[in-house]
């Protein structure tokens, strides 16, 4: 790197850090002022904080003009700054304009309620995610994959199951959830059954497409070696289908949590995130509702992130994962 380029990247780094510091200081000052009565200075500080953080995101997204130490963290830094900016604007709007908490609680109230209800939140998380969503995700995804293998082996199954799968996947979950609750009872088994129904067909459709993704030349080569269907599956077609399988697993990760929460609206023990949401809405306790939503969002995002990391390790050869 030339001296001119190094000096330019240094100036850009200094500008980025200065703008971040300005935005953070203005945001903190605006929130402190909002809790003591909003005014014209409060509005000015909000605008300054928003403009500074917005400009910081623009600078950080131009990673080629930054030093390597900052450029490496652009993928994490830009979303973090953007998300914190949204939370700041949310807090400033709620506190500065005295928005009633029954309409939209401020993030500070949500965090306070979350911290004060950790034991209850933990029990709800175990009931919904660990006991219902995760087993249903495993069973539904595995059943969909095994059905895809059967469809790949026997063509009449593929012709018969895929249209039925498209039909069942279009059924509203709010319609089949109460039926499954009546069949399997009010405990976690009925919620897991709802999740199985929601996750079976995405895996089936993606797995069938993935098993057909291997190229004709590669299949002909395996055939010329005298490989059996099972040998071709394990050596060629299953590795080629991995991106499709992980795509289905990631889709199912979101569907599983949604299905378990919705199923709890129709009957559950006095635990679960869906039960907590429906109960607290009736009590007009919106801060508890939002706290439960935050827990569900964090759990779903973490689950999705774990699957992404595993996918990168397994499908390191795929063009989307090459550096």
Structure description:
- There is one protein chain.
- The protein starts with a helix and ends in a 9-residue tail after the last helix.
- It is mainly alpha-helical.
- The chain contains 13 helices and no strands.
- The chain folds into 2 domains: 3-99; 116-321, MetI-like (MetI-like fold, Orthogonal Bundle), CATH 1.10.3720.10.
- The protein is flat.
- The model has no long low-confidence stretch (mean pLDDT 82).
List keywords for this structure.
323 residues, MetI-like fold, 13 helices, flat
CATH class of the largest domain: Mainly Alpha
**What is the makeup of the main sheet?**
none
Uncertain spans: none
CATH superfamily label of the largest domain = MetI-like
Query: What fraction of residues sit in β-strands?
Result: under 5%
The number of E-state strands comes to 0
* Rg estimate, integer Å: 25 Å
| Count of the domains | 2
Helix content: over 70%
Global morphology: flat
Please tell me the CATH architecture of the largest domain by its name. Orthogonal Bundle
CATH topology of the largest domain: MetI-like fold
Structural class: mainly alpha
The ordered H/E elements are HHHHHHHHHHHHH
Discrete helix count: 13
Average of per-residue pLDDT values: 82
End-to-end C-alpha gap: 22 Å
